[in-house]
Structures are given as C-alpha cells and as structure tokens.
Amino acid sequence: MNYSKIKPTKKNPISVVNGDTRDLIKSLPDNSVQCVITSPPYWGVRDYGVENQIGAEPDIKDYIKDLVEVFSEVRRVLKDDGTFWLNIANTYTSGGRKWRQKDSKNKNRGMSYRPPTPEGLKKKDLIGVAWMLAMECQKEGWYLRNDIIWHKPNCQPESVRDRLTVSHEYVFMFTKSEKYLFNQQAIKEPTADGKSTRNKRTVWSVNTEPFPDAHFAVFPPSLIEPCMLSGTNEGDTVLDPFFGAGTVGLVAKSLNRKCIGLELNPDYIDIINKRIS
Predict the structure, then answer these.
(1) In-domain check, residue 187
(2) How far is residue 52's CA from residue 35's CA, in Å, rounded to a whole number?
(3) Average pLDDT value for residue range 189-213
(4) Residues 6+ apart with CB under 8 A from 164
(5) How many domains would you assign to the chain?
(6) Kind and range of the H or E element at 21?
(7) Between these two residues, 123 and 174, which has the higher pLDDT value?
(8) Is residue 63 in a domain?
C-alpha cells in the first residue's frame, strides 16, 4: 500500500487501515513515527475469528517469532528518539484441552482451538510469555527501559482453588536508542500527602473498562495516556500496529496527536470509526 494512503494529515489526523500488520507496516517509511503503543493478541487466549491471526500459532516459538518480526519493523519506522510501549500478559498451559467452553459472563472465553502444551512445560504451568517476548526483543536490539506492572483493581474473578487470581499485566517500555524523548514532568504523580509531586512509579493501578460494542479486551485510556504524554509532543505521530477497538487513536485525538492504526479484522473498522468520530 502507498504511504500516502496511510499517512495521517491535519484534516484526517487518525488514519485507520484494514489489513495484516505484517504487510502494512512495510509501507511505512523509516523514522516516521515518534511513539508506538500496542497490545498484540495474546497467545492461545482468544479466537478473533480471522485466518492466519497472530496468537493462534500452535507453537509458542512461532508466536514469539511472528511478533519479534513485526517489532523489528516497528523499530525501523520509529524515530531514533522514539519509545515503544508493549502491553502483554502471561498465560497458562491449556492442560491438554483442545477447545474451551463459552462463558455467559465472558463472551471471549469460547475457543475452537487450544494450543498444545509447549515443549518442556507441564499441565497447569504458568508460561512466561511476556518475559519471553521482552527478552527476544532485547536480543533484536531494543533497549528495555522499564517493566511496568498494570495492576487491575477490578480484575476479572477466577474460580480457581489452587492458585491466586491474576490481577496484573505488563507494559514494557522499549527504546530504539540510548537517548530518547521522555517527558517525565508530564506524568509526575502526587506524593502521599498531596503537597508535591514525584516521578511516576512502575506499578500503575488502572481499572479495566467495559466496552459493549466489542466482545474483546480493550485498552483503558488511562493506561495509554502516560505512555503517550511522556513519549510525544503535540502534533507527533503515534502508531498502533494492533489497533483493535482503536483506543490509542482515541487518546491521540484527545491529546492533539496524530495516529496510524493497523487492524486485521474488518469487523472492527466500523467500531473504530464510530469511537473516533
């Protein structure tokens, strides 16, 4: 695709493109975006109903490989002083089950496939997918600057009896270079007594937010805002290669930034356009 059809403009600051990010991102020129904020499909967690979707690979090594290749392109299009914020969570092995029953309380839970237990792991093992991916990105040349804990005070309940309920995910902060744009002042937080401010900490307590138009997980804007405020200035361009429901674009619009969103599922495009407009 020609970049002129993707590039956001003053008249159209939020550019949404339908297609496989593995193909579309190659159309973006080098050093063309200031910041990347994204949450890719998690491995073996949801079936988004799209052929050849990332996250449905039978082998977790292929999942990591697919994402590392996308993020290699991300590094190419990111400006030298840019930042890359990656939201990802760990998952558990499927325990040998080949599918998952639908749940009236969680419409995303039903799956027609379940990936096999990765080699070397056991049933009921916690898979360190998040850190596996972060380490591979580091090997590819990214600077890993922070591992942020997204604490979910209103996390989804789990009917488990032999482990704790999971109430967090990760946001990894990567950079392309040793020195980069980072506006610490824009995201300082109040001290306990409320009399001054301090540098933002690495545990962010942010509630998940329901979005009735989409039967899949969406970014809460409050999770995205500090990433965008610290990594961009007004008028800068942000990229989300896994646009989903378009929350990164929504936040970009509210903060007077431009945004490019790449999304595989055509059914989500109407949802995105409705939210952003």
Answers:
(1) yes
(2) 27
(3) 92
(4) none
(5) 1
(6) helix 21-24
(7) 174
(8) yes
- Structural domain harbouring 111: 12-276
Helical (H) or strand (E) element with 145: strand 143-151
| Residues contacting 169, CB < 8 A, separation 6+ | 87, 88, 89, 130, 149, 150, 152
Q: Check residue 111 and give its pLDDT.
A: 52
In this structure, what token pair is assigned to residue 219? 């970014």
Q: Which of the residue ranges 109-113, 179-183, 210-214 would you say has the lowest mean pLDDT?
A: 109-113
Count Cβ atoms below 10 Å from residue 114 Cβ, excluding itself. Answer: 18
Residue 151 phi/psi, 5-degree rounding, is: -85, 125
Query: Which tens digit of pLDDT belongs to each residue from 12-63?
Result: 899 999 999 999 999 999 999 999 999 999 988 777 667 788 888 889 999 9
Q: Tally helices (H) and strands (E) across the chain.
A: 6, 12
2, part of any domain: no
Q: Which residues of 218-233 are buried (b: 16+ CB within 10 A; e: fewer)?
A: bbbbebbbbbbbbbbe
Angle between helices 267-276 and 247-254 (to 10 degrees): 20
The pair of structure tokens assigned to 240 is 């989300």
Mean pLDDT of 174-197: 96
For 47-81, the DSSP string reads --S-TT-TT--SSHHHHHHHHHHHHHHHHHHEEEE
pLDDT band at 113 (very low <50, low <70, confident <90, very high): low
CB 154: neighbour CB atoms within 10 A?
Answer: 11
**Paired tokens of 237:** 């361009």
Residue 1 in domain: no
157 by DSSP, 3-state: which? coil
Angle (nearest 5°) at CA 39 between 33 and 42: 145
Which CATH number goes with the domain that contains 18?
Answer: 3.40.50.150
Spatial distance between the Cα atoms of 38 and 73, rounded to a whole number of angstroms: 14
